[in-house]
Amino acid sequence: MKRLQELQSENYRLKAENNALKQRLVTRQRHEARHLRGGAWTKKDPIAREIAKLSGLEFNELWQRTRAHRISRRRQEVMYIMQEFAGMTSIAAGEYFGMDHATALHAKRRVELDLMQDKDVSQRIAAVVNLLQL
C-alpha cells in the first residue's frame, strides 16, 4: 500500500513537471513564430526590452503565462506604448504576447489609470518613449 502511494505521488509530480515543460515549450514556440513574421518587430522588441530592463526583468519573462503583478503590469505597459505611441492596433499589440485585442485594450485602460496614480509607471513609460524617440 505504501509503495502504491509513493508511485501515485511520483506520477503526480511527473505530470506536473510535464505540464510545466509543455507550457514553456508552447510559449517559446509562440515567441519564435512571432519573430519569423519579420518587419513589424522593429518597433515592438525595443519597447519590450526597455520596459523589462527598467523593471529589472529578463526580456523573456514578459512571455511567461503568469498573473504575477511585476510581470503582467510590465506586459500591459508594453502594450500601452505600442498602441499609444508606436501607432499599433490593439490586435497587433495583443498578438505580440499571444493575446487577443481585448486584453490589449484592457492593458491600455489599466495603464492609463496607473499613470494617474503611480509616478514610477509614468517615469518608466516616459523614459522608454524618450529613449526610443516614439
Topology:
Blueprint: H1 2-36, H2 41-55, H3 69-84, H4 90-96, H5 101-117, H6 119-132
Helical residues, percent: over 70%
Question: SSE string, helix = H, strand = E?
Answer: HHHHHH
Main sheet summary: none
The third-level CATH topology of the largest domain is Chromosomal Replication Initiator Protein Dnaa, Chain: A
For the secondary structure, the number of strands is 0
Beta-strand proportion:
under 5%
In total, how many domains does the architecture comprise? 2
Which labels suit this protein?
Chromosomal Replication Initiator Protein Dnaa, Chain: A; 134 residues; mainly alpha; single chain; 2 domains
Brief summary of the model shown:
The chain is mainly α and 134 residues long.
Q: What do you see in this structure?
A:
There is one protein chain. Helices cover 78% and strands 0% of the residues. With 134 residues, the chain is mostly helical. The chain folds into two domains: 1-36; 40-132, DnaA protein, C-terminal DNA-binding domain (Chromosomal Replication Initiator Protein Dnaa, Chain: A), CATH 1.10.1750.10. Helix 2 (41-55) runs antiparallel to helix 3 (69-84), helix 4 (90-96) packs across helix 5 (101-117) and helix 5 (101-117) packs across helix 6. The longest helix has 35 residues, at 2-36. It is elongated. The termini are far apart.
